[in-house]
Design brief:
The structure is a single chain. It contains twelve helices and 18 strands. By secondary structure, it is α/β, with parallel strands linked by helices. Strands 7, 8, 10, 11, 12, 13 and 14 form a seven-stranded mixed sheet that branches. It has a five-stranded mixed sheet with strand order 5-4-1-15-16. The N and C termini lie far apart (about 115 Å). About 0% of the residues have low confidence.
Length: about 400
């Protein structure tokens, strides 16, 4: 019996040693750690400068020109950064009215010398190019002026536009052969610096979604031409494809609210809440409802952290460029795969209200002011002529 007891103790010790070695090896599998900062703008509605053109007065409470200063500060703090826009960027301000009604793009097309390949660039896109956006998606208001205007407006973008759930309507009632209107996703190959100062290559998958209610709101442009499919179903289809294409992490750009739009027949699967249930999405940047997320003092009903939705890091940066959305992701390379270890989201304002007085947090970015200088003057002239003609 004693011999058996000794043998048992021997195997027990060996087993404990193997367990300890396994734990040590598991810890050693963490090859690298990276802090990645994801920046978001949404629902800018063509408010590039803080200016009210109809009243011919500067404004402090909105404008990409001030958000640009926050963007540049954020990049200085954390060089491992990516910048995205989540739609409704082209339509909804006096600048938009000027560009559309003055036929800006067509007018300037005549001024481009024959034989040049330089695309015409919408003023909003010029500003975004100057800020080196990494990718963007479309919002429902992008379709307000029709498909041709949308195409002409974004073709000068020096960054990819993605959307996965807008399809060409071939009217054959067969879903399996439908073609996407936009590229459904892109995979950005980026080099970041890890905590040890080493360069790491990461493939960042970016996919876009739009609330299906947009097809109803702009049905004169959608009917017989385009259709918008269910967000969650589309995500469940494309996320595995993105993984198969090498995406290390996946960021969803969703122009849809936390809750689905009231006019939708299928509301359960067309919201940020529904999208957050899809496995494989590492962060959700969203817009459309002109709200802020996270909001101070709020928590999810399931007890998850305030800056996550069902455990998925998320952010929504208000509207008109009044905030910058930021998600900090702590990434670890474990056994050859990049995983999100932790996250924190925040929305940073461009102004504060102290004793009923608006105090700017940052100045307008000089580069954006320079990019917009000529267009800014033209918009002022345009509304001056409008005002003058109405008074006659």
């Amino acid at each position: 019996m004693s011999r058996i007891k000794i043998m048992f103790q021997f195997f027990l010790i060996i087993n404990m040693i193997l367990i300890a070695l396994h734990r040590t090896n598991a810890q050693d599998l963490t090859e690298s750690n990276i802090r990645l900062r994801i920046l978001e703008t949404t629902d800018l509605h063509a408010h590039i400068l803080g200016y009210d053109y109809k009243k011919n007065k500067p404004r402090l409470k909105f404008g990409l020109s001030r958000v640009a200063s926050l963007i540049k500060n954020a990049r200085l703090e954390e060089p491992n950064s990516l910048l995205f826009d989540v739609g409704d960027v082209l339509v909804g301000s006096e600048l938009d009215e000027y560009v559309y009604k003055s036929h800006y793009l067509k007018l300037h097309e005549k001024l481009v010398p024959l034989g040049t390949l330089e695309p015409l660039t919408h003023p909003v896109i010029k500003a975004m190019n100057a800020l080196h956006y990494d990718a963007a998606t479309v919002g429902n208001h992008e379709f307000n002026h029709g498909l041709e205007f949308l195409y002409e407006s974004i073709r000068g973008a020096q960054f990819p536009y993605v959307n996965a759930n807008i399809y060409i309507d071939d009217q054959n009632n067969i879903d399996n052969d439908d073609l996407n209107y936009f590229n459904p996703f892109t995979i950005l190959e980026r080099e970041f610096t890890d905590s040890k100062g080493n360069k790491q290559q990461i493939k960042v998958g970016v996919i876009g979604f739009l609330t299906p209610i947009a097809a109803e709101w702009d049905k004169r442009y959608f009917k017989g031409r385009l259709k918008i499919k269910n967000i969650k179903d589309t995500a469940e289809h494309f996320i595995p494809i993105m993984k198969d294409n090498g995406a290390d992490i996946i960021i969803a750009l969703a122009h849809v609210g936390l809750q689905a739009d009231k006019g939708l027949k299928d509301r359960k699967r067309n919201s940020v809440y529904a999208l957050s249930e899809v496995k494989g999405i590492d962060a959700v940047l969203y817009g459309h409802s002109h709200s802020l997320f996270p909001m101070k003092g709020t928590k999810e009903g399931n007890g998850s952290a305030p800056s996550t939705i069902r455990g998925v890091p998320a952010v929504q940066a208000g509207y008109w460029g009044n905030h910058l959305g930021i998600i900090e992701l702590q990434l670890s390379k474990v056994n050859g795969n990049w995983v999100v270890k932790s996250s924190q989201s925040v929305v940073k304002p461009i102004y504060r209200t102290i004793k009923n007085k608006i105090i700017p947090v940052v100045k307008e970015d000089l580069e954006i002011l320079k990019v917009m200088e000529l267009d800014h003057k033209e918009v002022i002239k345009y509304f001056h002529r409008q005002k003058k003609s109405k008074s006659q």
